[in-house]
Amino acid sequence: xxxxxxxxxxxxxxxxxxxxxxxxxxxxxxxxxxxxxxxxxxxxxxxxxxxxxxxxxxxxxxxxxxxxxxxxxxxxxxxxxxxxxxxxxxxxxxxxxxxxxxxxxxxxxxxxxxxxxxxxxxxxxxxxxxxxxxxxxxxxxxxxxxxxxxxxxxxxxxxxxxxxxxxxxxxxxxxxxxxxxxxxxxxxxxxxxxxxxxxxxxxxxxxxxxxxxxxxxxxxxxxxxxxxxxxxxxxxxxxxxxxxxxxxxxxxxxxxxxxxxxxxxxxxxxxxxxxxxxxxxxxxxxxxxxxxxxxxxxxxxxxxxxxxxxxxxxxxxxxxxxxx
Amino acid sequence: xxxxxxxxxxxxxxxxxxxxxxxxxxxxxxxxxxxxxxxxxxxxxxxxxxxxxxxxxxxxxxxxxxxxxxxxxxxxxxxxxxxxxxxxxxxxxxxxxxxxxxxxxxxxxxxxxxxxxxxxxxxxxxxxxxxxxxxxxxxxxxxxxxxxxxxxxxxxxxxxxxxxxxxxxxxxxxxxxxxxxxxxxxxxxxxxxxxxxxxxxxxxxxxxxxxxxxxxxxxxxxxxxxxxxxxxxxxxxxxxxxxxxxxxxxxxxxxxxxxxx
Lengths: 324, 261
Fold this sequence. Notes:
heterodimer, A: alpha/beta, Rossmann fold, 6-stranded mixed beta sheet, 4-stranded antiparallel beta sheet, 10 helices, B: mainly alpha, two-stranded antiparallel ribbon
């Protein structure tokens, strides 16, 4: 199998009815195009980040891929199956983690939820015990197994949810904002584990997130969508190039007003320290440095890759402007 | 099926974590159904009989319909509260698991508190049978059992329609409670005491009369104002409503998956 996931011209249109002005005036219908012709392929073993601003259509795509939602148009094949046509067999082969919602039974100890999943997925007892033991150790939830889910902290719960989604050893894992609300340590643990799962077990992972550290440390490939359309398919560097602010020059300059050549953007200015964002392809670094040296009295400088957060923020702002 | 039982068991174990509130709802359910039964007994005492029906015969009517509804509502408790599942978006989780949606929704809740109602139903039925002045042998017992079983199917069908309707309305369909709770109260008495459309409603549209009134009339040797075959329609009515319920449910799931509500 060349592609484990194949998406062609995926369209999801919702009809939204707005209430009329009075009770009797006809209700207006507007069609919202949540997804409007998205296509991509994912090969087995890939780790793909699926990013875009709120309302871009990320969750809708995950819902289609996991068989919850039947699209208005287009075609999806996951492991050679159409998710919404063979829901039961399809979902037995995938794992899904929603950061905002638990898959576990609220009032039961974690271990009992796992037992129920064993029954639901009809897993062989021996294999289930082995998988569980391995996951419990790797994600370090041994002490939580007898605790009722409602008593867990968010980070603990997310770890248990991750184990729950992997008990049936899915070939594909969909992670929908798995690090949302987690503290720094929990985030690092979560990333480390998922990375290892992808590298050692070859599990294909599709991750939606707003956390650019997730993206930078995990995703070899990125899909960017906005307004229901695919805007980019490439690497983190491609994303930076697309945003046009690839580098940041951090410098200490002399007193007085700082002027910049065209193509450079002043992003921070505190006392004598400044930060300037620029794209070396449009404005070579030597031109910028020469300009600053001759006009502002450059005393110290350092060029770094632009933080992805800011890059993406700039990109999303531009996308919103295009929309407006 | 085994998944259904495991899910139900898990629900009950969860309930046991909140023993206080569990005990409260058992008590509440018991009190309200004892109230129902008392009203019936009082009527029986003060009027002795209702039309051509003796108190014991009415107790049998009451027993059949009450047991049916108690069992169906214990099994189908997940459907009563299904609007919440839709509203919270928990139905996504149901669709993410490799087993039937109805199995999961029914298994998500097994309402033991309904056993209060079951108890009064069983007591009513046993008391009525013991006091009957017509013979009650194996054939009559089998007929009664068939009526109760058909009643469970019929009420489950109604609950599936009630739950399935949430796929369209999102809101809970409390209107259906008028049919179920109201219907049970109505059908605890021989339908012939009602006049006109009300009686027709529970004979032809929501055929609760097929479960107890019509078969019992024949069982107790009364002349039926309807053709004789109508006394044996209980399984047909139960099967038809169950089938209708399944159809509504399936259409609802299909709608949910194309709207992603």
